[in-house]
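Lab notebook: predicted structure, single chain.

Context: the supervisor wants predicted structures on file for every construct in the current expression panel, including those that have not yet been purified. This is the next one on the list. No modifications to the sequence; it matches the entry in the shared construct table.
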Amino acid sequence: MRSLPLSLALLVSLSVTASAFELVGGTATLEWRNGQGAERQTHFTGGVELSLGAGFSTQLSVKNTNYRDEIPANNFGSFGYELHAIWRPQAEGLALGVFTGREDFDPWYGYQGIEAKYDAGSFSAEAAVSDYSGPGYDARHMTLELGYQINDRFGVVAGYSTLKQDGVNDTAKISYIGATAKVADGFSLFGKYSDVRGSGFEYGDVEVGIRFDFGNGVTFHQRSYSEIFPEG
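Prediction complete. Output recorded below exactly as produced.
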């Protein structure tokens, strides 16, 4: 599998020389997904971001997913963790990052990639290119998400991504729309519908959840395999 030209190790080694770590913020989400058939999924994600000074920060996150089926033998869970190294250049609202992570998931996936986010008032855009690898599996994921904050309480998002497995003449295409509603200080409810299509399969995925943000939250989305590809 071709590997992305990452500078994560260099960024981290330079960043940890900062004299002080300052907490930027964090987030925690609990969500439920309705896969195809009888499968039900519960996802918990938590993350924090620390400022390292000189325009650099690091984002750490963990994720736990549980899959439950009417047939108990089909039940299983996964756990993952990831690290982002983030740089904010002089351009206002722009953040650039590299990331790496691992998820123990049927049986496991390692991943790394590059990402960018731009905030301009009510509008935001986030994009990433990621490589995923595991036993007998290599794939590249590309994604773009656009967001619009309607007011202090309501926001909407729309996104599109592709997942191309090496050696397979097919590309999975995922498009989605979602909405967020702030219900209390720091707490929001959210929902998302994803349309997943590929050669020989087509299905929809519905997810709803609650999110708690403190401070300024975190900059980037979680990038684990269970996060970027809604399983049917």
